[in-house]
Amino acid sequence: MSEAPEEEFYSEERWNNWLDRLREEEIDPEDEESARLLLNLQDDVAIAVAKIVTAYDDGELEQEETLEELADIRETVLAEPDIEDEDTLMLVDGVQTSLVAVFYSAEQYVADGVAEEASVEEYVHAAAEAESEEDFDRALGLAACAGTRIIDGEDLDMDVVADIEYGLVTEWVNGLDSLQDALAEPEFIEDEDED
Question: InterPro entries attached here (predicted)?
Fold first, then answer.
């Protein structure tokens, strides 16, 4: 058993540095540079979550400790950001929405294990159906079930959202796609010096 990592997986300062960059720049989602910055912000958080889940799977973190780490990041990232520009605030809100499913998936995976009743695709479609019925809690729960399967190694094909009306579920699946990428590149994830 390797010793527990000394440093934080993700800090409030790191999140605030991203927000500072967003405040300084003219953010336009149509602009490639802006879109990349927002995606990097999302991926950076997903990588931190993937690191925590990997540390848990490797026995470096106990269950309770893992859930505390995830809750700490969730509170930091989902807090109302102090951004005056309404367009930028809306874009950050979109990133936060995508990340909600990442946090809930990781927490469910650690607390309850992998959801076994259906495939990633079936969970996503069931979540979309729940969203269409305005049962948002159920929709999020089902999206998190899909996320536990992704953490367990099942592939998420982004074509799954092709026939789903744009809304919360498509945002959440976008976040799960970031999580899948983060889990797929452990050599990048394990680089503690990456900034």
Answer: UCP022079
Tell me if 7 is assigned to some domain: no
Per-residue model confidence as pLDDT tens digits over 103-116: 999 999 999 999 99
Domain count, the chain: 1
Which tokens in the block code for residue 57?
């799977």
Which residue carries 């000394």 as its tokens?
Answer: 6
Identify whether 5 is part of a domain: no
Task: Please name the residue that has the structure tokens 């990781």.
Answer: 106
Predicted TM-score (pTM) of this structure: 0.89
Measured in whole angstroms, the distance separating CA 139 from the mean position of its chain's CA atoms is 16
Structure tokens, 194: 């990456």
Closest CA to 178 of 96, 115, 74: 96
Flag whether 130 is in a domain: yes
